[in-house]
Each structure stands twice: as C-alpha cells, then as structure tokens.
Design brief:
Blueprint (H helix, E strand, L loop, with lengths): L7 H18 L1 H8 L30 H37 L1 H16 L2 H10 L15 H13 L4 H14 L3 H8 L4 H9 L4 H24 L11 H7 L9 H28 L7
Helix pairs in contact: 1-3, 1-12, 3-4, 3-6, 3-7, 3-10, 7-10, 8-9, 10-11, 10-12, 11-12
Length: 290
C-alpha cells in the first residue's frame, strides 16, 4: 500500500472502483427507498425524464434507469471479477507446470497457449456464445436460469483469457526454480507439487495479480460486446452491455439510455487499467530504481 500511494492515478482508480462497487451493492437499498425494483414496468412513464420518483428517468418500458444501472453493475462487475479469477487460476496452473517441468511438457503447453493466442478473439467468442447447448448434447434446462447464463459467459471468456497469465507465470517460474531455496527443497526430497505450490507460487504471485487486474477491464468489454450482440447476459437481467443494445432504437429520442451505461463501462475499464499499471510499478522489484 505504501508503494501504491506513490501512484496518484492508481489511488484515484481504486477509489473510483470502490465507489462503483459500493453503488452496485446498494441497489437493494435504493430499491426500497424508491419503493420499486429494477424490473417494475410503468408503461405510463416510458422514456420519462429525471424526477423524484426516477432520479435518472426511465427506459422504453418505464423501468427505472438508475436501478437498472445498479443491477447491471452487479452483473458486469461480477462477470469481470469471477472470470478474471478463473482465467488467472487456469493460467497459473499452466504456467507453473510449463516452467517447472520444462522439456516436452513446456513445449506442449506453450504451443497450446500460442494456438489460443493466435485465434481471432471476438469471432471465436461470438461462435461459442451462439452455440446451442441442446445441439452439443447438454440438457437445455441447465441454461435457463440466470445463474447458468452468467456461468456460461464466465466459462466462454475464461477459455481464451488465461494465456497472458500463463506466459507471465512461466517466465517467473523459470527464474525462481533455479534459486537456492528451491534446489534445497528438491534436495531434501520435496515432491514437485509441494515445490510448485509452497516455494515457487508465492514468488510468482506479483505478475499474476497484475495480469489479472489488467484483464478485468478487457473481460468487461468482452461481456459488454457479447451482450450488445445478444449473445451474453440475456434480458430481463440487466448488464451494461445489454442495456446499450436495448438503447439502440432510442439513440436519438432518449440518448441517456446509451450514455449512462457507456460512461460506466468506460470508467470501470479505465480504472482497472490504471490500477493494474500502478500495481505493476509497485510490485516490480526494480521499481525503486526508476
């Protein structure tokens, strides 16, 4: 934290993210204060302007825009954070195994990583998002719930989002595994799994944290793009991406429906990138020299 305090932009980003998370978490309190919820329809108040009853106005079917933004923030932030954790876990396992064992295992895992990196990302995600579970032998009823819809997005993005962490962890593992304390543990008979998890992993956590933090912004953008195309979070569950998609028809009559989710996506992605840059400088052992 002392190192991070030397980066005003990262501190500003951290404060902004804390504000966004607190606002999303307060959705239930705001609903009780306004006496409505994010799914309440009021066809008599379609596209209404800001008022005491609706602080940011309403959407095309009379739902409160502020509440939709708060609930959408819960979905978008949750997808970004959970997907980043899953992708970081997969990438860490691949990077540790490749860096520690070397040889054929390293060559196989890194060529797999290179192959995933070479794939066109957005077209691949669109294809995966458009796959009908029933046509691949999966029971369709598993994907009808809101939680299953979010889980599907997490899995789809995590399948291609682990490569950066894997390469960084592998590079750090190659450096750490030749240190004397690792060699001493191996000489005392420690098993490879014990060496990797107890002696190497704590020393390669810094690049993993930085990569995961920087990836959250990209994941939120990808979720927003998929939801914008109708392949991500499905209505009536709100996310900032599908709110942008729903606002297309009202761009000229009610631009606020697109402006607000667009601004929140921009601020969230910018904040995670600034925080990631600050963490990178803070956790870099050569940062003090610069």
């Amino acid at each position: 934290m002392r190192g991070l305090l030397r980066h005003p932009a990262a501190i500003f980003a951290l404060a902004l993210l804390a504000l966004l998370v607190a606002a999303a978490a307060s959705a239930g309190l705001v609903e009780r204060a306004l006496g409505i919820d994010a799914e309440t329809l009021d066809l008599a108040a379609q596209l209404a302007g800001p008022s005491a009853a609706h602080p940011l106005g309403t959407d095309e079917v009379g739902r409160d825009l502020l509440l939709r933004l708060l609930r959408g923030g819960q979905v978008s932030l949750a997808v970004g954070l959970v997907t980043a954790l899953v992708a970081a876990a997969v990438g860490t396992v691949v990077g540790l195994a490749a860096g520690y064992f070397g040889g054929a295992a390293d060559a196989l895992l890194m060529r797999l990583t290179d192959g995933v990196i070479a794939l066109p990302l957005l077209p691949l995600l669109i294809i995966l998002g458009a796959v009908d579970p029933a046509k691949v032998g999966l029971p369709p009823e598993l994907f009808h719930s809101e939680l299953a819809s979010l889980g599907r997005i997490v899995v789809i993005i995590a399948l291609v989002g682990w490569t950066t962490v894997a390469r960084l962890v592998r590079a750090a593992t190659l450096t750490v595994k030749v240190q004397d304390f690792v060699r001493a543990a191996e000489a005392l008979g420690a098993r490879p799994l014990h060496v990797m998890t107890v002696h190497i992993l704590p020393n390669v956590v810094s690049p993993m944290i930085v990569a995961a933090t920087l990836s959250i912004g990209n994941i939120i953008l990808l979720e927003s793009a998929l939801s914008f195309l109708g392949l991500g979070v499905q209505p009536p569950m709100p996310s900032w991406g599908n709110m942008l998609s729903s606002a297309l028809d009202q761009m000229y009559t009610a631009p606020a429906l697109a402006v607000w989710p667009g601004v929140l996506i921009f601020l969230t992605v910018l904040s995670f990138n600034l925080l990631g840059d600050g963490l990178q400088d803070t956790l870099d052992p050569r940062g003090g020299e610069r």
